[in-house]
Design a protein that fits this description.
CATH superfamily of the largest domain: NAD(P)-binding Rossmann-like Domain
Mean pLDDT: 87
Low-confidence stretches: 207-213
Bound molecules: NADP nicotinamide-adenine-dinucleotide phosphate
Shape: globular
CATH topology of the largest domain: Rossmann fold
Order of helices and strands: HEHEEHEHEHEEHHEEEHEEHEHHH
Structural class: alpha/beta
Number of domains: 2
Number of helices: 12
Strand order of the largest sheet: 3-2-1-4-5-6-11
Distance between the termini: 87 Å
Strand content: 5-15%
Number of strands: 13
CATH architecture of the largest domain: 3-Layer(aba) Sandwich
């Protein structure tokens, strides 16, 4: 008889999948499920503006990898962003057309998000968008609408150095974001390198048949640099480190309202880096590579003007006066500002990463070399802290 009572009680109180199970705390974090990985949901719904860019692809991959849902607002052709579909499982990555000056489409893109990452930026002005439109008004609009929508975290990368018009507009963009979203997390990266960057590949790539645009950056075998690159100090940071730091900032509640400078572990003269890249590519000696001061080459300055005039929307080889000015601006570190290491990122050294990045551009790429046949390229010398 007792066994019958226990059995009937169990059956009465059992809950079946058809039962309604109200969520007591209807927050996104309460909906977490899965054990991690691209098919799980970790409670983060992130809208990534500027996801189609260089850094955007890494950030979206990191988000998807840890089970975040990613909203990708895009402009132009949807095929440009379609490959981001693979960063998460089915239904985890959603695309939405938007316009940077249109409040309604932006509101729609961040309506259900608790994290917004603004990676929108451009190194040159176009017919439709000035630096002010993109870096100040656009950033302000995104920050204001994110705050109005109740977004918990707004992440905004800027640029470390100051100087050119683009960098000045980035500075005012920071003020605008801080006014609209005081708790925004701001990153100030130095130059970022990695696959598809605009630093390593702009300086080094020289396969005429693969891409004429990079030949446009150079003067045949010579590399024009401002004051031969000897007065510019760079502290390049690896793109995956910046993406990892952005992920840590998303998760870390202490990051709210902070500014981080995103730089690599070492500082180098630009001239040292350029020479090293060409040594790695085995083009330094045999192919007659040399650097010269671009200030004394009027034909090169004319080329920059032509490049901007011919294709103002996307200058040939991304060669613009603004871009070159940024390339030759020293990365100035700020005292007392936390770095990526404060977010728990172990920084990648250029010595360990760059040889791999430049491998496809080596002279005699398919040559089956003997062990020790070629001398190991000497690493670049570190610069004194300037
Ligand atoms: N790469 C670096 O070395 C570096 C260093 C320091 C800071 N940063 C900053 O980090 C952020 C991301 O850099 P990134 O290298 O990934 O840049 P990127 O490759 O040039 O990508 C920029 C993104 O912004 C979007 N965008 C540009 N103008 C826009 C407009 N008017 N309306 C809507 N979208 C627009 C682009 O969309 P489309 O694809 O549609 O053009 C693209 O998705 C930028 O703010 C940049 O200034 C970069």
């Amino acid at each position: 008889y007792q066994a019958c009572v226990i059995l009937s009680n169990t059956c009465l109180h059992a809950s079946y999948s058809t039962d309604v199970r109200p969520i007591k705390k209807p927050s996104l974090t309460a909906l977490r499920r899965g054990t991690g990985g691209r098919s799980s949901f970790n409670g983060v719904v992130a809208t990534v503006f500027g996801a189609s860019g260089f850094l955007g692809r890494y950030v979206c991959n990191r988000l998807g990898k840890t089970g975040s849902q990613v909203i990708v607002p895009y402009r132009g052709d949807h095929y440009d962003v379609l490959r981001l579909k693979l960063v998460g499982d089915l239904g985890q990555v959603l695309f939405l057309p938007y316009h940077l000056k249109d409040d309604t489409s932006i509101r729609k893109a961040l309506k259900y998000s608790n994290v917004v990452i603004n990676l929108v930026g451009r190194d040159w002005e176009t017919k439709n968008f000035t630096f002010t439109d993109v870096h100040i008004d656009g950033a302000r609009r995104l920050a204001r609408l994110a705050r109005e929508a109740g977004v918990e975290k707004f992440i905004h990368p800027l640029i470390l150095s100051k100087g050119s018009q683009c960098l000045i507009s980035k500075y005012w963009g920071e003020q605008a974001v801080r006014e609209e979203f005081p708790d925004a997390v701001i990153f100030k990266p130095g130059v970022i390198y990695g696959q598809e960057d605009r630093f390593l590949r702009k300086i080094t790539r020289d396969n005429v048949f693969r891409s004429y645009t990079y030949l446009w950056r150079r003067q045949l075998r010579a590399l024009p640099l401002w004051r031969k690159g000897e007065e510019t100090i760079k502290q390049p940071v690896y793109v995956a480190d910046v993406a990892a730091a952005i992920m840590s900032a998303v998760k870390d509640p202490d990051s709210a309202g902070k500014t981080y400078q995103a730089v690599g572990p070492k500082r180098y003269q630009l001239s040292e880096l350029a020479d090293w890249f060409y040594r790695i590519m085995r083009r330094a000696d045999k192919q007659g590579y040399f650097r010269y001061d671009m200030r004394w080459d009027p034909s090169y300055l004319l080329r920059i003007k032509m490049s901007e005039r011919l294709l103002p929307g996307w200058p040939l080889g991304a060669l613009s006066a603004e871009g070159l000015e940024m390339e030759h601006t020293t990365d100035q570190l700020l005292d007392g500002v936390p770095t990526l290491e404060d977010l728990g990122v172990i920084l990648t050294t250029m010595e360990s990463q760059v040889p791999w990045e430049l491998k496809p551009y080596k002279a005699g790429m398919y040559y089956d070399e003997e062990l020790g046949e070629f001398e190991e390229p000497a690493p670049p010398k570190e610069a004194l802290l300037l």
